[in-house]
Each structure stands twice: as structure tokens, then as C-alpha cells.
């Protein structure tokens, strides 16, 4: 299965597969969760502190070899008015793709969501540096072009015949 093609067919703006070892973890990013800007800290089980320590989250991610980086780009002012809804929609698409690829990977892939979603924790909870991740995937993260870029990931272990 071509994961990138599947992602594009579902409607993701961009998709790329990179090695998990190329993700940069900055465990101090957990402070963004603790600042509670999203309002979910200590309220949602997929958020800190319940989801685990930064070190535990990092180790959980390192159980996987590959990362499917998924991106949505909000271009219009109308789209940008409700980033929370856009993140939710991105997470729904990510979950759909997760179900499709779960049958062709070794073990159950791990979703890292765009903001907390169901039982899935977000990139801040894992301490993933979004800018460095985007660079490793040959994607833009931050640019002065008036667009908002959102990310989710699916970490997986390929079967021997893949990648």
C-alpha cells in the first residue's frame, strides 16, 4: 500500500514517510501543555499529566520505526477562523487513514494527533519539534505566507516487504 497516495486520496494536503529516528524530541515542550493554552491539561486522559511523562511519551514513540507525517494547510481566512475545528477534522482523517494502514503494518500504528483527540495525544505531549519534523519531511511548517499548517502523525512498524 502506498501510504502517501492513500493520504492524498483522503484529502490531506501533504504526506511523507520519515524515520522516527529523524524526529526531534524536545521534552521541555511539555511546558506548552502545562501552560494549558488549549484548556485540556489535567482534564483529558490523552493530555498531561495523565498520558505519561515526557520521557515515557518519548520512549513510546521510539517503539516505532517509521512516521507518516500528515499535513493540512488552512489558506483562506474562513478556514483559519476555526483552527480547533480544522484540527478535529484533521484528526478524523488521520483516524480513517490509521484504520486503512493498520492492516498492512506490523503491529498497531500509533496516532499522534493535532491537539488531543479521543485516546490520542498531541505533538506537544510527545515533545516533537514540529519545525524540524516538517524539514525532515520536506514540508513547510512556518512561513510568512498567511497560511496555517497543521500536522498529525501515524507512527508504524513496516512489514519486511515495505520501505
Describe the structure.
- Helix 1 (3-10) crosses helix 5 (83-102).
- This protein is 34% helix and 17% strand.
- The model has no long low-confidence stretch (mean pLDDT 94).
- The protein has 163 residues and is an alpha+beta fold.
- The protein is globular.
- A 4-stranded antiparallel β-sheet has the order 1-2-4-3, with helices on both faces.
Keywords for this structure?
single chain, 163 residues, alpha+beta, 4-stranded antiparallel β-sheet, 7 helices, globular
Helical residues, percent? 25-40%
Overall pLDDT metric: 94
Characterize the biggest β-sheet: 4 strands, antiparallel
Question: Roughly what fraction of the amino acids lie in strands?
Answer: 15-25%
Which regions are unreliable across 5 or more consecutive residues at pLDDT < 50? none
For the secondary structure, the number of strands is 4
Overall outline:
globular
H/E element sequence: HEHHEHHEHHE
Brief account:
With 163 residues, the protein is an alpha+beta fold.
Layout of strands and helices, then pairs:
Blueprint lengths: L2 H8 L3 E6 L10 H5 L19 H8 L4 E9 L2 H4 L2 H20 L7 E3 L10 H4 L3 H7 L11 E9 L7
Helix pairs in contact: 1-5
Amino acid at each position: 500500500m502506498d501510504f502517501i497516495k492513500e493520504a492524498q486520496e483522503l484529502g490531506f494536503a501533504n504526506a511523507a514517510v520519515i524515520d522516527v529516528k529523524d524526529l526531534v524530541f524536545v521534552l521541555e515542550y511539555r511546558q506548552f501543555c502545562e501552560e494549558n493554552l488549549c484548556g485540556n491539561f489535567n482534564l483529558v486522559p490523552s493530555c498531561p499529566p495523565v498520558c505519561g511523562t515526557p520521557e515515557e511519551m518519548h520512549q513510546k514513540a521510539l517503539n516505532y520505526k517509521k512516521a507518516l507525517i500528515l499535513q493540512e494547510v488552512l489558506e483562506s481566512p474562513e478556514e483559519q477562523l476555526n483552527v480547533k475545528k480544522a484540527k478535529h477534522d484533521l484528526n478524523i482523517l488521520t483516524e480513517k487513514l490509521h484504520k486503512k494502514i493498520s492492516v498492512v503494518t506490523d503491529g498497531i500504528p500509533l496516532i499522534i494527533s493535532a491537539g488531543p483527540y479521543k485516546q490520542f495525544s498531541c505533538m506537544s505531549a510527545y515533545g516533537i519539534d514540529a519545525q524540524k519534523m516538517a524539514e525532515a519531511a520536506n514540508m513547510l511548517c512556518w512561513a510568512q505566507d498567511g497560511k496555517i499548517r497543521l500536522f498529525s502523525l501515524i507512527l508504524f512498524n513496516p512489514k519486511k516487504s515495505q520501505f
